[in-house]
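Comment thread on ticket #2218

A.B. wrote:
> Attaching the input chain for the structure job we discussed in standup.
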Amino acid sequence: MNILEENDKPLTPEEIEKQKKIVDDLYKKKKEETAEYLKIIEKDRIKSFEESKEQISENIEKKAYFIDKKKEKGETLKDIGAHVDIEKTGAIISESIEKKATLIDQEKEKPS
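C.D. wrote:
> Ran it. Output below, let me know if you need it in another format.
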């Protein structure tokens, strides 16, 4: 019963001020910790952002390089294709196929 009686007593102005000070100190400490945490996080986030930015830049440069190479290769192939006489090439290929076919037929006709 003694404990209940102590709790039922109104707080003195000194006790009220003491509890306010404790609450204020806790609030300030929490606020400082939060601010410090946010500073640490901010540094990490800035670092991560810069790294990501560099990686993206590198990837864009690589992609642009490969696109340019592909265009150059396509233009080279077009130039080669423009100078090739398709009918002449077809005749040469056809002749080669006929020779190989003849050789294969001769091999089949030979007795083993």
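A.B. wrote:
> Thanks. Noting for the ticket: The chain has one domain: 12-109.
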